[in-house]
């Protein structure tokens, strides 16, 4: 590795299948000669065991220094009053954009040729967790209440990020997903800000349309090819990005990037999969694709492309696939085949 090219980055193997799929990804990155100098840290259950905190100070310090991380899935311990480490990381580093691309990797299925980008606002909306009960009579939990907050500034920031990404990546159409017919204030502000920003700065650069979230879910299942890029608020983005992952083979194929002003953190969309942890059978593709997004982020798109090509060849020429994709390979067999493809110029 050329030391001039070495880019400091934080590595959080994570919980459950995390260490298994992160190891597989490191093998692939190594074969590519990727330029990362890793600082390995713990979080989630691993953080609680090692430092009594799901997000230890040393982990935060590392990300503050590197501004770049690859993160395995984290479990939030139930009990003990811990907040989700993922939500804390988003807040700490103002990771306002959650970017989730979905592409068909195995042709011939129900949804061929999908190439969709979901951009989700990551810090506001109904996801902020401002919730409480209102007692009535003897029932302390008679009413449950949640507050959603969207700010014009927060909407503008995510919409500008999404529109700039559309221009930079040549997307033809951007669809604003909202529920402004019912939540006129909360998601009306998002819709109105998007339409205004487009009219002011982006007209002619791509087509802009808008769709109500429930109709969007139906249209995605009936005809996903009518969409190119979806931009939406936090909760709708959370739900729709899992739906879109399902179109391309499930959670094992879905990477995510959390982009902010202070750092960028790359991860798989899926969780720690405790049901298969330790068995060596997890599909590592989602986090490998997250590593590809990370390579693009540090301006090494040629390495990202080599990684994606090698994944494609391993799946479709070698037909080496893990169980969730209907194959019989374990994580190690898939990784070995992938590394061989990379070394042979894949
Ligand atoms: P999950 O995504 O871990 O698992 C859902 C199902 O998908 C399981 O059957 C699992 O075996 C399967 N699956 C997931 N990833 C797979 C892979 N790479 N290969 C093969 N199969 C895979 O969701 P869950 O069970 O609801 O959550 C488990 C834990 O993960 C929870 O503690 C949750 O809070 C956490 N979680 C973390 C993140 C994150 O860190 N970004 C995201 C989601 C959930």
From TrEMBL:
This is Isocitrate/isopropylmalate family dehydrogenase. GO terms for molecular function: isocitrate dehydrogenase (NAD+) activity; magnesium ion binding; NAD binding. Belongs to the isocitrate and isopropylmalate dehydrogenases family. The keyword Transferase does not apply. InterPro entries: IsoCit/isopropylmalate_DH_CS, IsoPropMal-DH-like_dom. Pfam families: Iso_dh (PF00180). Residues 6-338 form the Isopropylmalate dehydrogenase-like domain. Keywords: Oxidoreductase. One of its GO terms (biological process) is isocitrate metabolic process.
